[in-house]
């Protein structure tokens, strides 16, 4: 990790790159070129071009059905797409098999399954089959993972299906962060969580970003959260209509029209 | 084998162990039931109980194909057809045209009907009706060796792949983010189930094989608090039902397979009540 890193949320990296600064934030991490997704009922996405840099929180916004979730699925490699998605490590090396941390919107899973949080985290940590039990070393690591994601280690023994919305969100974040991902995908991670929980979650994501400089793509409907926590934004409607720094994108006519926002008053945003 | 037989005589000096066929059946039950308990956990977790049922039905067609080809041992024809059948079902489900339970229902009834038609055409169905309920008392020593081999193979797969099975069973997208390919993992599992069902159908029977796969795991779910206890309970309940059912069937003069399933069903009812009561106590 580069210790020279100085930029904080929203810092403009383009200038310092020219000045020879090699802080990790300046480097492009995810490069999407001419991405297209086609399904039976037509074109879902076309000509998507997007760059996400290390340490950037990019908010993906757009109306329902604009293709946000489809773009996430393409990034996860779950659906066939045309075009190219390239991942680069913070050392500038090409990553062929990127590790992606994914925190889904509403995790659809079997709530009656006798699977504990520890089972899930340990299954991801080591190849030792969890049905034979969990080794102490793996349990300790899983507890540390939970703490890093702001969750109590006592959750390890609880069933996944018995967690509250906020607890599940943090467990999923802990799961997403191990191994440390090349890209963190957050798909409206807050829909089942109360307001205070939402803020805690976003603060956590911001601090992780500052600490590990990973790129984050965040799909959100809540524009106030986008303004508060994202560093950049991209407006999607089958393709990228607009992308850039979050304040610019949010102030644009396109975003106002898409979300039916009032005209800004003079001197306002 | 003789060592095992004398071991049984020493450890279990009862009337039912006096016969060789009962000793063989006992050994077979000791090998088959942990397998069913183990694999059943993931069948229930993946909501695939209907799928394994369909695989059981397809065995009839597999036997019919064996008969038509004039082979003596139907194991290979059953296995071949079950694999094609299983891969076919997952492919059609994967296309997303119709819901999974509908597709499995279509395959299941086709497999059964095709088997009945082919068998009745080639000399009368009655000859093969034994496959419907199976007979564990006919198991031979070399078949017990085969079962032992399969138990070892399944334990290996379960040791190597289980974590991936588990993560893929939670959510496909989540598994994909860890570079686990849900489709590939699913195929390994489906093949495993196909092999298990095909090999044991002769002794357990088309009609009840699925109960043995599903009941122990379903009972275990009522009381389990983690993956380890889920597996522990499932295997224990499966073995308990198997041994109890076998002994009961001897003294009652009933079919072993059906008796085993009934014992498992009683265990399910008990664990259901236990889980219900302890769940309410925790909630209170």
Furnish the topology, listing elements before pairings:
The complex is a heterodimer of chains A (269) and B (284).
Chain A (H helix, E strand, L loop, with lengths): L13 H5 L9 E12 L2 E12 L3 E5 L6 H8 L6 E7 L5 E2 L4 E4 L13 H9 L10 H13 L16 H12 L6 E5 L7 H18 L3 E4 L3 H7 L2 E5 L3 E6 H6 L1 H7 L10
Parallel strand pairs in A: 3-8, 3-9, 6-7, 7-8
Antiparallel strand pairs in A: 1-2, 1-4, 4-5, 9-10
Helix pairs in contact in A: 3-4, 4-5
Chain B lengths: L1 H10 L8 H26 L3 H21 L5 H20 L5 H22 L8 H4 L7 H30 L1 H6 L4 H23 L4 H15 L3 H26 L3 H28 L1
Uncertain parts of chain A: 1-22
Helicity range of chain B: over 70%
Characterize the overall form of chain B.
globular
By secondary-structure content and strand pairing, the structural class of chain B works out as: mainly alpha
Helix content of chain A: 25-40%
Largest sheet of chain B, if any?
none
Q: So how many helices of chain B?
A: 12
Q: How much β-strand is present in the residues of chain B?
A: under 5%
Total number of helices of chain A: 9
Structural write-up:
The complex is a heterodimer of chains A (269) and B (284). Chain A has 269 residues and is α/β, with parallel strands linked by helices. Chain A has a domain at 56-79 and 99-259: 3-Layer(aba) Sandwich (Rossmann fold), CATH 3.40.50.300. Chain A contains 9 helices and 10 strands. In chain A, α6 (195-212) links the parallel β7 and β8 (216-219). Chain B has 284 residues and is mainly alpha-helical. Chain B has a domain at 2-45 and 129-279. Helices cover 81% and strands 0% of the residues of chain B. The radius of gyration of chain B is 19 Å and the shape is globular. At the A-B interface, β6, α3 and α5 of A face α7, α8 and α11 of B.
What descriptors fit this protein?
heterodimer, A: 269 residues, alpha/beta, Rossmann fold, 6-stranded mixed sheet, 4-stranded antiparallel sheet, 32% helix, disordered N terminus, B: 284 residues, mainly alpha
């Amino acid at each position: 990790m580069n210790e020279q890193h100085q930029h904080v949320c929203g810092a403009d990296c383009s200038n310092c790159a020219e000045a020879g600064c090699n802080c990790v934030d300046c480097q492009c991490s995810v490069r999407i070129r001419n991405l297209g997704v086609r399904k039976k009922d037509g074109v879902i996405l076309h000509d998507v071009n997007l760059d996400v840099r290390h340490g950037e929180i990019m908010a993906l916004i757009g109306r329902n059905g604009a293709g946000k979730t489809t773009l996430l699925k393409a990034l996860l490699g779950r659906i066939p797409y045309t075009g190219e998605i390239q991942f680069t490590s913070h050392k500038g090396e090409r990553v062929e098999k990127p590790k992606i941390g994914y925190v889904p919107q509403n995790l659809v899973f079997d709530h009656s399954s006798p699977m504990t949080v520890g089972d899930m985290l340990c299954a991801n940590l080591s190849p030792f089959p969890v049905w034979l039990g969990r080794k102490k070393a793996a349990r300790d690591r899983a507890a540390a993972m939970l703490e890093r994601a702001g969750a109590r280690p006592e959750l390890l023994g609880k069933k996944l299906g018995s967690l509250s919305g906020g607890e599940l969100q943090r467990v999923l974040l802990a799961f997403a962060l191990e191994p440390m991902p090349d890209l963190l995908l957050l798909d409206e991670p807050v829909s089942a969580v109360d307001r205070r929980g939402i803020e805690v979650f976003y603060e956590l994501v911001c601090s992780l970003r500052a600490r590990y400089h990973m790129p984050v793509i965040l799909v959100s409907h809540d524009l106030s959260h986008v303004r508060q926590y994202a560093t950049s934004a991209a407006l999607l409607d089958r393709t990228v209509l607009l992308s850039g720094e979050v304040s610019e994108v949010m102030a644009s006519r396109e975003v106002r029209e898409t979300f039916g926002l009032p005209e800004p008053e003079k001197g306002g945003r | 084998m003789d060592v095992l037989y004398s071991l049984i005589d020493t450890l279990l000096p009862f009337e039912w162990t006096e016969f060789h066929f009962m000793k063989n059946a006992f050994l077979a039950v000791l090998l088959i039931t942990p397998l069913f308990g183990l694999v059943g956990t993931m069948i229930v977790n993946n909501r695939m109980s209907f799928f394994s049922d369909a695989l059981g039905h397809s065995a009839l067609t597999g036997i019919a194909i064996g008969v038509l080809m004039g082979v003596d041992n139907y194991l290979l024809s059953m296995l071949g057809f079950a694999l094609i059948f299983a891969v076919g079902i997952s492919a059609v489900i994967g296309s997303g045209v119709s819901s999974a339970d509908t597709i499995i229902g279509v395959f299941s009834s086709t497999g059964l009907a095709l088997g009945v038609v082919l068998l009745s055409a080639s000399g009368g169905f009655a000859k093969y009706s034994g496959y419907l309920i199976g007979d564990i008392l006919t198991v031979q020593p070399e078949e017990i060796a085969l079962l032992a081999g399969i138990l070892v193979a399944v334990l290996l797969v379960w040791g190597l792949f289980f974590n991936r099975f588990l993560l893929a069973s939670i959510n496909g997208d989540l598994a994909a983010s860890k570079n686990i390919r849900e489709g590939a993992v699913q195929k390994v599992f489906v093949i495993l189930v196909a092999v298990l069902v095909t090999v044991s159908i002769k002794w357990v029977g088309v009609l009840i094989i699925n109960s043995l796969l599903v009941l122990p795991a379903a009972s275990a779910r009522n009381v389990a608090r983690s993956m380890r206890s889920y597996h522990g309970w499932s295997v224990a309940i499966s073995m308990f039902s198997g041994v109890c059912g076998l002994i009961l069937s001897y003294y009652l003069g009933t079919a072993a397979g059906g008796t085993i399933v009934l014992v498992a069903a009683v265990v399910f009812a008990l664990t259901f009540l236990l889980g219900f009561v302890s769940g309410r106590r925790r909630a209170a």
